[in-house]
C-alpha cells in the first residue's frame, strides 16, 4: 500500500510540473535568457517563477527574502538586486522540487523504506539552507577581496597624486593600468570612472561607490578623499598614507586568517591518511597473530 502511495505522489509531482510548464509557456523567456549562465536548473526556472508570482512569495516572505536581497545588493548592486533575488529564490524552489521528487522516487524504488523518505525530506530542507549559507560565504569572500585589493589602489593614488595627478585622474589610471579587470574592486571603480566620464558630481559618485561595495573601509576611503581632495597637497597625501598603513595591517590579518583556515582544513585529510596508514601497517600484524 505504501509503495502505491509513493508512486502516486511521484507521478503527481511530475504531472503538476508539466502542467505548470505548459501553462507558463514563454512568459519568462526573456528573464531566463538573461540569467541562464549565472544560475543552475534554469530549465525549471519558468515554473519556479510562476510559483513565486502566483503565491506572492516575495511579498508574503519579505522578512526572510530581504536578507537574501541585502546580500544580492552587496554582490550585484541596487540596480539588479531585486531581479537577482527573484532568480535566486526560483533556484531555491527548483532545487527543493528536484530533491522532493528524488526523495519519493528513491523511496518508491526501495519499496517504501521509511528511512530513505526521512533522510530525503531532511535533505530537501537542508539543501536550500546550505545554498543560502553559501551566498553569505560568497559575500564575505567578495568583501575580503576588496579589502585585499584596496591597499594597492590607495598606494597607486598616493604615487599619482604626488606626481601631480588629480584624484579623478588617479582613479582613472588605477582602472586602466590594472592587471585584473575582473576583480570586484576594479569593477566597482570602473563603474565609478564611467559615471565621472558622464559628468556626474564627484561626491555623488564616491557615495555611490561606498554604498555599492558595502565595506566600511571603502566608506573611510571615500570620506577621506572627499574631505581632503579639494585641499590637495600634503593634507590629502598624509591622510591617504595613514589610511594605507591601516589597510595593509587589515590585509595582513585577512591573509593570516585565511592561512589558519587553510591549515585547519588539512587536519581532516591528515587524520584519514593516518588511519589508512595504521590499517595498512597493522592489518598484516593482526592477521599473523
UniProtKB/TrEMBL annotation:
The keyword Transmembrane helix applies. Residues 157-284 form the Type II secretion system protein GspF domain. The chain crosses the membrane at residues 5-26, 88-109, 115-136, 266-286. It is a multi-pass membrane protein. Keywords: Cell membrane, Membrane, Transmembrane, Transmembrane helix. It is found in: Cell membrane. The keyword Transmembrane helix applies. It comes from the Bacteria. GO terms for cellular component: plasma membrane. This is Type II secretion system protein GspF domain-containing protein. It comes from Virgibacillus indicus.
Amino acid at each position: 500500500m505504501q509503495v502505491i502511495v509513493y508512486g502516486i505522489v511521484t507521478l503527481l509531482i511530475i504531472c503538476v510540473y508539466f502542467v505548470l510548464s505548459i501553462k507558463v509557456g514563454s512568459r519568462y523567456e526573456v528573464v531566463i535568457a538573461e540569467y541562464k549562465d549565472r544560475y543552475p536548473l534554469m530549465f525549471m526556472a519558468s515554473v519556479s517563477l510562476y510559483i513565486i508570482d502566483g503565491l506572492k512569495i516575495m511579498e508574503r516572505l519579505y522578512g526572510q527574502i530581504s536578507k537574501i536581497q541585502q546580500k544580492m545588493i552587496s554582490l550585484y548592486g541596487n540596480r539588479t538586486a531585486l531581479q537577482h533575488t527573484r532568480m535566486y529564490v526560483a533556484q531555491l524552489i527548483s532545487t527543493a522540487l528536484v530533491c522532493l521528487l528524488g526523495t519519493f522516487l528513491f523511496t518508491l524504488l526501495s519499496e517504501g523504506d521509511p528511512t530513505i523518505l526521512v533522510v530525503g525530506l531532511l535533505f530537501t530542507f537542508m539543501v536550500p539552507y546550505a545554498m543560502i549559507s553559501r551566498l553569505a560565504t560568497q559575500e564575505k569572500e567578495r568583501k575580503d577581496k576588496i579589502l585585499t585589493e584596496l591597499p594597492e589602489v590607495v598606494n597607486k593614488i598616493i604615487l599619482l597624486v604626488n606626481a601631480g595627478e588629480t584624484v579623478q585622474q588617479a582613479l582613472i589610471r588605477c582602472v586602466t593600468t590594472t592587471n585584473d579587470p575582473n576583480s570586484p574592486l576594479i569593477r566597482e571603480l570602473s563603474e565609478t570612472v564611467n559615471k565621472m566620464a558622464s559628468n556626474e558630481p564627484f561626491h555623488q559618485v564616491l557615495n555611490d561607490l561606498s554604498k555599492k561595495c558595502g565595506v566600511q573601509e571603502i566608506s573611510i576611503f571615500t570620506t577621506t578623499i572627499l574631505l581632503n581632495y579639494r585641499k590637495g597637497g600634503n593634507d590629502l597625501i598624509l591622510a591617504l598614507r595613514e589610511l594605507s598603513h591601516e589597510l595593509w595591517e587589515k590585509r595582513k590579518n585577512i591573509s593570516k586568517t585565511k592561512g589558519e583556515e587553510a591549515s585547519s582544513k588539512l587536519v581532516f585529510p591528515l587524520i584519514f591518511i593516518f588511519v589508512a596508514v595504521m590499517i595498512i601497517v597493522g592489518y598484516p600484524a593482526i592477521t599473523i597473530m
